[in-house]
């Protein structure tokens, strides 16, 4: 089995360098891997209804559809910027969506994959906001707002959030590592997370079995991705 994992592209404009480099990277994958895992915040915001997609996202979505047609299984974790994905990506395009956690098997390696934005349980203000934004009430409200207005609101709010994440959150990486250790003790073999924008890979041996902890970095400054192939994880960076 061969799989690619990446997170935190925060795609906004088709004119952006990271947008176009990701399209080029996906061209290299066409038919060459079995699975593509997009581990949250692929888009800097996401609202879709009545067939209306934010115009600059159309090219990237067409590319994902092309990859799927080439035989690649595509899986998406919802992030703190892009959620309510299932209606479009699963119901229409048969791509798997994990609202928070996904437990998968890479050959015989039991793997937990998630964006990871709920791991820091001390950030109660964010967790409350997250609960509100993903509530049925908020979903119903956004359903009646015209898409153009939603996109304008989303662009402003995502800009504020991106500025907040400008510094590498080393403390968050440590909390994610502690979370991974607990999951290893429960029988998980690999934990793969996004959200922190810092590429990290660490390996442990617990009860005689190799365990792997990964934070994927981002496709903004690191252009980092994880390759899984035949039992081995490799964290790499794409050279645009």
Question: What is this structure, in a nutshell?
Answer:
The chain is an alpha/beta fold and 240 residues long. Helices cover 34% and strands 26% of the residues. The longest helix is centred in the middle third of the chain and has 18 residues, at 147-164.
Order of helices and strands: EHEHEHEEEHHHHEEEEE
From the N-terminal CA to the C-terminal CA, the straight-line distance is: 26 Å
**CATH architecture assignment name:** 4-Layer Sandwich
Q: Describe the global form.
A: globular
What does this protein look like?
With 240 residues, the chain is of the alpha/beta class. It has a single domain, classed as Purple Acid Phosphatase, chain A, domain 2. The chain contains 7 helices and 11 strands. The chain has a 6-stranded mixed β-sheet with strand order 4-3-2-1-10-11, covered by helices on one side. It has a 5-stranded mixed β-sheet with strand order 5-6-7-9-8, with helices on one face. Helix 1 runs parallel beside helix 2. The longest helix has 18 residues. The protein starts with a strand and ends with a strand.
Based on the model shown, name its key terms:
240 residues; alpha/beta; Purple Acid Phosphatase, chain A, domain 2; six-stranded mixed sheet; five-stranded mixed sheet; 7 helices; 11 strands
Blueprint of the fold:
Blueprint: E1 2-6, H1 17-29, E2 35-39, H2 58-69, E3 73-77, H3 86-89, E4 96-98, E5 101-106, E6 109-114, H4 124-133, H5 136-144, H6 147-164, H7 170-185, E7 190-193, E8 199-206, E9 209-216, E10 224-229, E11 232-237
Parallel strand pairs: 1-2, 2-3, 3-4, 6-7, 7-9
Antiparallel strand pairs: 1-10, 5-6, 8-9, 10-11
Helix pairs in contact: 1-2
């Amino acid at each position: 089995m061969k799989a690619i994992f990446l997170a935190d592209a925060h795609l906004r404009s088709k004119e952006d360098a990271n947008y176009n480099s990701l399209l080029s990277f996906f061209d290299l994958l066409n038919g060459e891997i079995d699975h593509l895992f997009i581990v949250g915040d692929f888009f800097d915001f996401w609202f879709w209804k009545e067939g209306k997609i934010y115009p600059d996202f159309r090219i990237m979505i067409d590319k994902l559809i092309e990859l799927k047609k080439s035989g690649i299984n595509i899986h998406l974790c919802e992030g703190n910027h892009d959620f309510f994905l299932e209606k479009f990506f699963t119901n229409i395009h048969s791509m798997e969506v994990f609202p928070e956690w996904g437990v998968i098997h890479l050959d015989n390696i039991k793997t937990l994959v998630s964006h990871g934005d709920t791991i820091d349980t001390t950030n109660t203000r964010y967790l409350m906001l997250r609960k509100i934004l993903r509530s049925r009430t908020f979903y119903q409200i956004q359903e009646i707002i015209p898409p153009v207005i939603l996109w304008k609101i989303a662009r402003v709010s995502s800009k504020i959030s991106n500025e907040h994440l400008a510094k590498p959150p080393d403390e968050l990486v440590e909390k994610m590592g502690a979370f991974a250790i607990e999951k290893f003790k429960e029988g998980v073999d690999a934990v793969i997370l996004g959200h922190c924008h810092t590429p990290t890979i660490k390996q442990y041996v617990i009860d005689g079995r190799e365990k792997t902890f990964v934070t994927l970095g981002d496709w903004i400054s690191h252009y980092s991705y994880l390759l899984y192939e035949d039992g081995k994880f490799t964290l790499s960076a794409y050279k645009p």
